[in-house]
């Protein structure tokens, strides 16, 4: 039992890579490297899918048009009038969160110990890197939540102008002022912990499943915990961001 | 001391029971209203996802606090 407890503790704590560059040792969090991987995947996909666009879509272009259409409709339904400014932002956040939440299904990197036994290269002895969702780190999700709150603030100020935005704090009754101010602090916290708790819970459950019964069983429940839960949480995050923006520019 | 921490963590995770009941009631009502008015299914789906996400946050808070109790004591 002690063994699995320490394994789970390892999952919750942040793993760091030590890289020596120009005789200086640099520490980089795993979640940053994972986010770089997600960004690279998204950029490569964007470059590949948007090459040679035609008026009449065919093949991969029709796929990407479906995705863009979905994001546009999603934003139009939830934000309202000014959806055209926000749909690129919402789409980017949605794609980023979907890829980063479901990245665990590609976790096929062998552990450093196995690599050392195979190749006998000293470097791999200390090597420890796994493809976990970067959103299991609370700092990443807090960053995303603050980003969406900044979007809410900026959109409110831009659409209503400063005087209208300040006036919106006193509507419908001035008594609501403290709650309206509190909203700006509670919303990012709730957005952040929702994403973090869900993804961390899914990662821990998957770890338990891998240790308890490595055959077939993890593959079946991975469909729920990795794919469905990840996509649903990304959807909910964007949905709530849309609602907050829609409320701010109303 | 360790026993007490385990007990406290177990109580924290009990929030899941209440949230389970809450989300099931919401989903049941949604199914009822979709059966009554199939043309409003899209709007109902959005509302249910929002409600479930908001209700679920409570369970997540309990889970996060339980984790903190056990790991960062």
Short recap of the structure:
Chain A has helices at 2-12, 30-49, 60-79, 83-101, 112-119, 138-167, 177-212, 217-248; strands spanning 16-21, 24-29.
Protein architecture, described:
The complex is a heterodimer of chains A (250) and B (73). With 250 residues, chain A is mostly helical. Chain A has one domain (2-248). Chain A is built from eight helices and two strands. Chain A has helices at residues 2-12, 30-49, 60-79, 83-101, 112-119, 138-167, 177-212, 217-248; strands spanning 16-21, 24-29. In chain A, a hairpin with a 2-residue loop joins β1 and β2. Chain A is globular. The model of chain A has no long low-confidence stretch (mean pLDDT 83). By secondary structure, chain B is an all-alpha fold. Chain B has one domain (2-71): F1FO ATP Synthase, CATH 1.20.20. Chain B contains three helices and no strands. Chain B has helices spanning 2-13, 15-36, 41-71. Chains A and B meet through α7 and α8 of A and α3 of B.
């Amino acid at each position: 039992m002690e063994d699995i407890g320490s394994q789970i503790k390892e999952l919750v704590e942040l793993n760091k890579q030590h890289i020596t560059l120009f005789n200086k040792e640099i520490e980089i969090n795993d979640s940053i490297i994972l986010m770089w991987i997600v960004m690279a995947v998204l950029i490569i996909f964007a470059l590949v899918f948007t090459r040679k666009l035609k008026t009449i879509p065919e093949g991969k272009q029709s796929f990407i048009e479906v995705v863009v259409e979905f994001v546009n409709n999603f934003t139009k339904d939830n934000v309202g009038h000014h959806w055209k400014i926000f749909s690129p932002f919402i789409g980017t956040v949605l794609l980023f969160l979907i890829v980063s939440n479901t990245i665990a299904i590609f976790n096929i990197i062998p552990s450093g110990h196995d690599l050392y036994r195979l190749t006998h290269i000293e470097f791999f002895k200390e090597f420890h890197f796994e493809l976990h969702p970067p959103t299991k780190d609370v700092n990443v999700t807090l960053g995303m939540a603050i980003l969406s709150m900044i979007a809410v603030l900026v959109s409110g100020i831009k659409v209503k102008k400063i005087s209208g935005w300040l006036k919106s704090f006193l509507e419908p009754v001035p008594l609501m002022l403290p709650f309206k101010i509190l909203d700006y602090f509670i919303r990012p916290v709730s957005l952040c912990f929702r994403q973090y708790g869900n993804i961390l819970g899914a990662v821990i459950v998957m770890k338990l499943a891998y240790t308890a019964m490595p055959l077939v069983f993890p593959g079946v429940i991975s469909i729920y915990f990795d794919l469905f839960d990840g996509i649903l949480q990304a959807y909910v995050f964007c949905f709530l961001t849309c609602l907050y923006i829609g409320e701010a520019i109303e | 001391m360790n026993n007490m921490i385990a007990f406290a963590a177990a109580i924290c995770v009990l929030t899941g029971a209440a949230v389970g009941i809450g989300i099931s009631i919401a989903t049941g009502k949604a199914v009822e209203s979709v059966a009554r008015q199939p043309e409003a299914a899209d709007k109902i789906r959005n509302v249910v996802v929002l409600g479930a996400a908001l209700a679920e946050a409570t369970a997540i808070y309990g889970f996060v606090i339980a984790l903190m109790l056990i790991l960062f004591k």
